[in-house]
Amino acid sequence: MQIKYILPLLAVAGFLFAAYTVISGNKPVPVAKAVTEPASAPFKSFIAGAGIVEAQSQNIAIGTPLPEIVKTVAVKVGDQVKAGAPLFYLDDRDTRAILAIKIADLAKAKADVSVAKATFSDAKSLSDLAEAVTDRRAISSEELLRRRNAMLIAKARLESAQALVQQAEAGVADTETTLSRLVVRAPVDGEVLQVNIRPGEFAQAGFLNTPLLVLGNLDQLHVRVDIDENDAWRFDKNSKAVAFLRGNRRFKVDLTLAYVEPYVVPKKSLTGDSTERVDTRVLQALYRFDRKQLPVYVGQQMDVFIEAQDYSPSKDSDNRQDAKGSSS
């Protein structure tokens, strides 16, 4: 008798457990509090954009014109350098050996010029003596012609030797240029931001995903702001702009427009928002501020708000009505 009641009881218990599971699973998950409060715009109507801090001269990725082993790195991160200061040296032993050969070739070419000058001088003297003879019976025409030709041949050899000197000098200059290119120098005054090369490592020439060294002028900092193409028509160069440090909205700074790059480019700095389109194009505006105003580093992100005019539909209709009334 008790067995026939067990199955209905188990069925009821299973139903109650399933109902409890469904009800508890449908409860809304509490939203986690943000670690830091996001920045809010100080303007009634505005354009918001993500900004990345960069050097005034932009972040210069230093490369090498020649692939070679690094001999010495002359700077470290944080060093202030002047334009033309050495940053790192490449192995130059092969080039210096070639330079020694080229210098020896130049010395030989100059010696050959001296020999050619003496030969030409001797041939010219003999030719002049023959020309000075007034009695043509004292010297045959054949001998006179031979001496003239000898002088011309000696002159041609002298010119050839002088050309070889110029060629040797060009070879020395070319090798010295290669030698100077093995010393990578700073293109501008600035600060060393990154050093990704060490002595003994092979420095590749050409474009690299990780630059050998990064340099930038930090007298002032720039913020590169991505303005969505849908908001580009609202952007005004004369509008006010404010940047908040991402992660702490208490740190903010007023921005001054440096310049606008008029070429609209694909957006690279994605926020991860589910509604964000990856094919969005952006207008990039660069604002500047004094680095002393804010504890910020190159590469940090900032939330930038640019004041814009209010183009709400109600305001547009009011403007049309005012235009109609003024025309009537």
Topology of this protein?
Blueprint: H1 3-25, E1 46-55, E2 60-62, E3 68-73, E4 80-81, E5 86-90, H2 93-132, H3 141-181, E6 183-185, E7 190-195, E8 202-203, E9 213-216, E10 221-228, E11 241-245, E12 252-254, E13 256-266, E14 281-289, E15 301-307, H4 313-327
Antiparallel strand pairs: 1-10, 1-15, 2-9, 3-5, 3-8, 4-7, 5-6, 7-9, 10-14, 11-12, 11-15, 13-14
Helix pairs in contact: 2-3
Offer a quick outline of the entry.
This protein is an alpha+beta fold.
In percent, how much strand structure appears in the residues?
A: 25-35%
Let me know the average pLDDT.
84
Structural class by SSE content: alpha+beta
Overall shape: it is elongated
Give helix and strand order, one letter per element, not per position. HEEEEEHHEEEEEEEEEEH
Major beta sheet, specifics? 7 strands, antiparallel
N- to C-terminal distance: 98 Å
Low-confidence stretches: none
Q: Helical stretch count?
A: 4
Range of helix content: 25-40%
Topology, number of strands: 15
Radius of gyration: 40 Å
